[in-house]
Amino acid sequence: MGRLWSLLFLTVPILGVAIFVLAMIPGGVFDDHWLPVNINEHGQIIDDLFMFILYLTGVIFIGTGILLFWFLWKYDTETRTEPVKYTHGSHTLEIIWSILPAATLLFIAIYQMDAWASHKMVPPVDDHGDPKPALVEVTGRQFEWRLRYAGRDGELYTKDDIFTVNDLHVPVNEQVVIVVKSQDVLHSFFLPNMRIKQDVIPGMKQKVWFQANQVGQYDLVCAELCGWGHYKMRGRLWVDSADDFAKWLEQAEQEQNSTEIASASQE
Length: 267
Ligand SMILES: [Cu+2]
Description:
Blueprint: H1 2-24, H2 44-74, H3 91-111, H4 113-121, E1 136-141, E2 144-149, E3 162-165, E4 167-171, E5 175-182, E6 187-191, E7 196-200, E8 206-211, E9 216-222, E10 235-240, H5 242-266
Helix pairs in contact: 1-2
Bound molecules: copper (II) ion.
Copper (II) ion binds at residues 140, 187, 222, 224, 226, 230, 233.
């Protein structure tokens, strides 16, 4: 019976690795369960970091799984009858298994600095070297994404700003800067295909940026359980050609103006 448990523990690393391998085979059983397609020029560095950490933790996972199996197998009570020996531990071992993880974490902290810089610290600049102005401000609220576009003057918080909900349009092949904030609780602005995930809390403004290289329609979701309707915070990201984006913006502006006139004439 004792050895059955050791075999059960052995299935953990085996199944764990098998699922990853199956998920990575295109057209396989778990096709489409791996990372969604990356369409951000700055996204590869995040994927590389993800894979590096996955391999590193994967090796440790397999190693500890096998060790666990081996000790359970070796010290099975049915085959080993001598009494247990208790010790006060080993100083050397304690030091080794404190220093090794500390050094590994320190290494990851240094290794990921370029990825952190490209995604969080160094926003894109315009031709004059000034920080590129934000195209749109996204406000998370229970339970939708409110969008405020800069409008014709290219400047946010002016009279010609355009307001929409949940449908985030951006132009392709262009650096896009977005200001993200929250109106009520903790939300997380998540664009899986851009490898962008930014938590937002009320009272703070965050900036995110990306350069999409593929037109299409993608997910915009909230990655933080923010209340009963969290699942409803499912917006859409539309990456448009420059022409389509200009057309869409013009149309949104016209719609907004016509409803403003209509509501003004009703009063
Ligand atoms: Cu939310």
